[in-house]
Specification:
single chain, alpha/beta, 8-stranded mixed beta sheet, binds uridine-5'-diphosphate, binds manganese (II) ion
Length: 234
């Protein structure tokens, strides 16, 4: 079954170079989809990850998704690392449970960020990520809530990651709004996903897309509402 590793991205060239080197060597059969936000708005991790999943879902064959921050390099031995990545998850799975940035412990009990895995059925069932969390924070907690609400259980594995250094994310401008969204809950997601592809290129198993939000004029070019049912799989 194909593992699609989906990476939300903007302006982290050094991390990206290390990421590609690390994971193409370790996981030559995985397909890495980098989804770059091609506008200057607040970074929107959940939306970008939905776009990557949407792209993967439209490829033939059975698949699962690994949602992966660009700054997380697994630091287990190669054999263990391959075991963690190469098997389709039977349930929503959290891999980034021991990151150097959090002193190799969970920052809080329900943390569900960094690196997660979903099979296609579960990801559709929870309607993916919310697209509404702009700027830093809470989109991963919202994802956690969706999983719990759907009655799914999370599998957690003890996996160590080296977190690459970066300046503290200064996009906290919207954090209060994100906390509010989290408190009230969200329903939007794959079914309301809209984006415009600006650019794409492939180099072997590494596929790069640049996208921006959809604006009114784009509707003329006919992006359709999304119908996510497992029946329309190719
Ligand atoms: N990200 C990015 N550019 C940005 C902000 C975030 O590429 O300007 C992506 C990147 O994959 C990063 C992830 O979103 O690893 C999570 O953001 P960040 O690392 O800033 O979060 P933090 O480490 O502060 O939780
Ligand atoms: Mn980070």
């Amino acid at each position: 079954m194909q593992n699609y590793i989906i990476v939300p991205y903007r302006d982290r060239a050094e991390h990206w170079a290390k990421f590609v080197e690390h994971y193409t060597r370790l996981l030559p059969d995985a397909i890495i989809i980098r989804v770059e936000q091609g506008n200057d708005k607040l970074f929107n991790r959940g939306w970008l990850l939905n776009v990557g999943a949407h792209i993967a879902m439209h490829k033939p064959g059975s698949k699962y998704f690994t949602f992966h921050d660009v700054d997380m390099l697994i630091s287990e031995d190669e054999h263990s690392a391959r075991l963690f990545y190469n098997y389709p998850p039977i349930a929503p799975t959290h891999l980034a449970t021991k990151c150097s940035q959090f002193d190799y412990t969970m920052p809080y009990a329900n943390y569900f960020g960094g690196v997660t895995q979903f099979n296609e059925e579960d990801f559709i069932l929870i309607n993916g990520f919310s697209n509404s969390y702009a700027g830093w924070g809470c989109e991963d907690d919202d994802l956690y809530n969706r999983v719990v609400k759907a009655g799914l259980r999370i599998n957690r594995y003890q996996v160590r990651y080296k977190s690459l250094a970066h300046a503290p994310n200064n996009a906290h401008a919207n954090y209060k709004n994100n906390l509010d969204l989290l408190k009230h809950g969200t329903k939007d997601g794959l079914t309301t996903l809209a984006y415009k592809e600006l650019d794409s290129f492939k180099a072997g198993n590494v596929w790069c897309y640049k996208v921006r939000e959809q604006i009114c004029d784009d509707l003329i070019s006919g992006i359709q509402p999304n119908d996510y049912t497992l029946n329309n799989k190719v």
